[in-house]
């Protein structure tokens, strides 16, 4: 989702020089985020949901629209169903549950979303479903007996943007998953029900147990998704010269040498890295520095969102994260 601000060559040169000296047009520090708020439990028919807003004007306005004006907004809803367990693709023969992430970008957020070949929705859903989420919630944690498992469907809508949506989207997914509750399921076995199906082979009776799932409709007894407390976020480290900064406004994104998306677990471990964008690229040492900085920022975002969830318990208002 390239966001262009119509910067002239002179403005781009000035902005690049300023950022390389750790001077941002809105006077933020390299790790200071623009206003970022969230709201949970916004979709009554979902098992869990969240809205995250970020961006807006910070400090003085700057020519070329690089001051950070404009608010981004994403909404995530989580639905949970019980379905057949899925054979894992690791060759182990084990089975597990399913986590499916679908990302839609509205035309208001990006007019190019009408193109069938727009790669961004796939990039976002793949990075979340194959990198960030499995590191916290393995498929085997979603099993319910030998043949049944939870299927978790995460539907994401990007309503507007104020910079790359991946960090805010990952945060909204974390908040929605943290507030998701699954009905309590009890497994029961009754081999006597197969008495009529007993087969006799060589004088040996073979009886096959029936596994039933007893689903509790008392939502007060519902439980969180197993392992969800380990779910982290994605931070994007933006590199200009030797400067590494975060929450880039659209104008700042245009002049980056490189951008590094880093998936960070709740425990601070780096679980995935992806390079994208940038006009020049950077060397391996600078990439390491960017990953380390993104790791620290990711931990702070996780901490802030967890504290915000505690503060927002049983309320429906917006709460600040960073």
UniProtKB/TrEMBL annotation:
Q: Tell me which InterPro entries the record gives.
A: ExoRNase_PH_dom1 (IPR001247), ExoRNase_PH_dom2_sf (IPR036345), Exosome_comp_Rrp42_subfam (IPR050590), PNPase/RNase_PH_dom_sf (IPR027408), Ribosomal_Su5_D2-typ_SF (IPR020568)
Asked if the Swiss-Prot or TrEMBL record annotates the protein with the keyword Cytoplasm, the reply is yes
- Tell me the PANTHER family matching this sequence: EXOSOME COMPLEX COMPONENT RRP42, EXOSOME COMPLEX EXONUCLEASE RIBOSOMAL RNA PROCESSING PROTEIN
Keywords assigned by UniProt?
Cytoplasm, Exosome, Nucleus
Q: Which GO terms describe its biological process?
A: exonucleolytic trimming to generate mature 3'-end of 5.8S rRNA from tricistronic rRNA transcript (SSU-rRNA, 5.8S rRNA, LSU-rRNA); nuclear mRNA surveillance; nuclear polyadenylation-dependent rRNA catabolic process; rRNA catabolic process; TRAMP-dependent tRNA surveillance pathway; U1 snRNA 3'-end processing; U4 snRNA 3'-end processing; U5 snRNA 3'-end processing
In which broad location class does this protein mainly occur, judging by the first location in its UniProt entry? cytoplasm
Q: Which domain of life is it from?
A: Eukaryota
Question: Which family, according to the similarity comment?
Answer: Belongs to the RNase PH family.
What name has this protein been given in UniProt? Answer: Ribosomal RNA-processing protein 42
Task: Name the Gene Ontology molecular function terms of this record.
Answer: mRNA 3'-UTR AU-rich region binding
Pfam families referenced in this protein's UniProt entry, alphabetically: RNase_PH
Q: Which organism is it from?
A: Saitoella complicata (strain BCRC 22490 / CBS 7301 / JCM 7358 / NBRC 10748 / NRRL Y-17804)
* The UniProt record lists the keyword Cytoplasm: yes
Show where the Exoribonuclease phosphorolytic domain sits.
33-183
* One Gene Ontology term, aspect cellular component: cytoplasmic exosome (RNase complex)
Q: What subcellular compartments does it reside in?
A: Cytoplasm; Nucleus, Nucleolus
